[in-house]
Amino acid sequence: DVKVTQSSRYLVKRTGEKVFLECVQDMDHENMFWYRQDPGLGLRLIYFSYDVKMKEKGDIPEGYSVSREKKERFSLILESASTNQTSMYLCASSQTRVRRNEQFFGPGTRLTVL
Amino acid sequence: EDQVTQSPEALRLQEGESSSLNCSYTVSGLRGLFWYRQDPGKGPEFLFTLYSAGEEKEKERLKATLTKKESFLHITAPKPEDSATYLCAIEPLGAGNMLTFGGGTRLMVKP
Fold this sequence. Notes:
The complex is a heterodimer. Chain A is mainly β.
């Protein structure tokens, strides 16, 4: 079974703090993704990565950065957290295949910025 | 622009009352359509992938079907444990495994 883990289930931070969200997958997947999920707005892609040290902006990258130093690990960084970044953050991974390329998600991190 | 619309937004069923959830999409070329189940406070759980019109996939009480414009998730004789939000997503051709998600259907099955 594919396993995607995220470093925290719940996180509370203060405005202006630097926040690191970690994601690890154990299936040697090439692709990794960070989403945020908000009521009424659905899942929105923040950043994704096709390979180590590679990153691409998604639909809402402003205020975020990412790091992928190892294939299995993809980090999301909030440089200076703001209250509008309070959300559920979801990490996903997938392999590059014509078939069997579905994304597998982690359990999510519920981030509250005060 | 690629778009995914799910209906209804919410659906209440009695246990055993079969129904269908709809996922309509517009895309210039479809590589795959995905169904996920999401329980409150958890990440989406993969259910099915459909690649071509006419394809069907089944798992327990769930069956997913695909046409050129929409997909249906049929739920036969649902149980309370089927209560969840069901998400549909499409992968356009050339999108490099980037998905476009619909807003989801929140299903509630009453005993």
